[in-house]
Amino acid sequence: MISRIILQNFKRYQNVDFTCNSEVNIFVGENGAGKSTLLYGIGLVLSGSHSQIERSSLSSIINQEAILEFMGTRDINQLPEVFIEIYFDELSTEISSNFNIEGKHNSQKIKAFGLSLKIIPNQDYIAEITSVLNDSKWTVFPFEFYRVEFLTFSGKTYSSYNKPYKFLHSMINTSLIDTQQEIQKRIHEVYLDNISAENRAKVNHQYRINSFNFLKTLRKDELLKENASEFQLHFDESENSFRNSVSAVKNGVDIKNLGQGEKVLLGVENAYSHLK
């Protein structure tokens, strides 16, 4: 679906142009070659998320060589601009029928279907930038005076709240998968599959009764000796207490004790499940 990717001054890439295959694309390279950076850039454009940019900070996004070159000249006309452009295969009817992303608002000035991320100097602050550059004591890059734009090739802005496309996508970085969270998701799925909706309230209610009776038995048999503290042991009384206390097993092994590789695969499966 993605036919071409162009990046300028994005992280380690100063100026690159990737042509993609029509089916599967595999990026191979040594550590530090930029594989994850490329995927991260694609994810940013598709997300339309300003918060992702804020979490990363512009100092880590703008190419360092471009920054150093500018710092050497301090020419306002050479302030580095960042952009990532994703061109879509117009042979796909899912793309060709979406006129919201068609236009010539791209670096190649060609009519195409696509999306872009631009990080450029904010023209509203040109006076401030000029003042800063004229200061002989100035030694820092003016990240504060940049703006972030997500644009379709038709020239319209978009965000994570009003994406101009309907197709589904999923970005998976196995190094960032929270395995504990993914395990809980899978346990929850097993719970939903094994207990029908009409029985869940009954099961939880019976679980709470049994839990309270169990505590009473412990106290009666003096197996539980509570001190004079203002805090005492107590079972969760919420309507989800049973669901939150159970686990799941795979071939007799508690899901929480699976190997790290299997836990990561759970995360990958969970990420793709919402696309079905």
From TrEMBL:
Domain Endonuclease GajA/Old nuclease/RecF-like AAA: 1-258
Any Pfam family hit: AAA_15
InterPro entries: AAA_GajA/Old/RecF-like, P-loop_NTPase
Superkingdom, taxonomy of origin: Bacteria
GO terms, molecular function: ATP hydrolysis activity
Coiled coil start-end: none
Signal peptide start and end residues: none
Listed GO biological process terms: DNA synthesis involved in DNA repair; double-strand break repair
Name this polypeptide is given: AAA family ATPase
Native organism: Streptococcus pneumoniae
